[in-house]
Amino acid sequence: MSLPESSADTTDWRFMCSRFQSRQLTVPPVPQPLRHRLAKLGGWHWGTRADDPMSLYMLDSGLVKELLAGDLSEQVQVVHSGHGINSYALTYCLGYRGIALVTQLAWGGVYQDRTAAAARLNRMFDRCAALVERVEALGREHHTGPRLVCLSSDIRGRALCGWIAVPQPGDATPLEFLRSYPVEVDTALEVAGQVIADRPVP
């Protein structure tokens, strides 16, 4: 369920920026139209709706399912979650102007190389920002057709990228469709950018 408009404002966006910058991390891209809806939902959890952090970590939240198969409403989630002492990741989900991004990188575990993990995280958010800028440059504010889905998770060792339509009854599930479009985890966002360049949002 979406959060009430009054519960989020640019204060939470600024706080998120400050929190990431204090750790020498690139700020996750939140498109301007979504920033006034962004709310701080936990210690390292910001979003435009209240999804469960553990479900986001497991890529099993309502939002992830909607990005893959439901109405592509404009939403964003940024959350650090996990379990135990080393199984932690930063998960970023974005639905915006015909793209659905679900990206996840290991970060914050006790035994992880913090410098290397931070460098990977910064590259990920730089690539996400470049993809958002590319989509915004197309100038299409409302999108109801096929969506470009990019799902990438280093802790699960898989990445998928491709165009999907909202499934109809009897259709294969989006994940079944996307299994035909595997890409390398390290290059998934670059592939998505190239897909946009080769075939702009239909």
Count the domains: 1
DSSP helix count? 7
The rounded distance between the terminal residues' Cα atoms is 28 Å
> Looking at the structure, what is the overall shape?
globular
Radius of gyration over alpha carbons? Answer: 16 Å
Q: What is the beta-strand fraction?
A: 15-25%
Plain-language structure description:
With 202 residues, the chain is of the alpha+beta class. It has one domain. Helices cover 35% and strands 24% of the residues. The protein is built from 7 helices and 7 strands; from the N terminus they run ααββααβββαββαα. The protein has helices spanning 10-22, 32-35, 53-57, 62-69, 114-137, 174-178, 188-198, and strands at 39-42, 45-47, 75-83, 87-96, 99-106, 147-153, 158-164. It has a 7-stranded mixed sheet with strand order 1-2-3-4-5-6-7, with helices on both faces. A hairpin with a 3-residue loop joins strand 3 and strand 4 (87-96). It is globular, with a radius of gyration of 16 Å. Mean pLDDT is 83; it is low at 1-8.
Overview features:
seven-stranded mixed sheet; alpha+beta; globular; single chain; 202 residues; 7 strands; disordered N terminus
Can I get a quick summary?
With 202 residues, this protein is of the alpha+beta class.
Topology readout:
Blueprint: H1 10-22, H2 32-35, E1 39-42, E2 45-47, H3 53-57, H4 62-69, E3 75-83, E4 87-96, E5 99-106, H5 114-137, E6 147-153, E7 158-164, H6 174-178, H7 188-198
Parallel strand pairs: 5-6
Antiparallel strand pairs: 1-2, 2-3, 3-4, 4-5, 6-7
Helix pairs in contact: 5-7
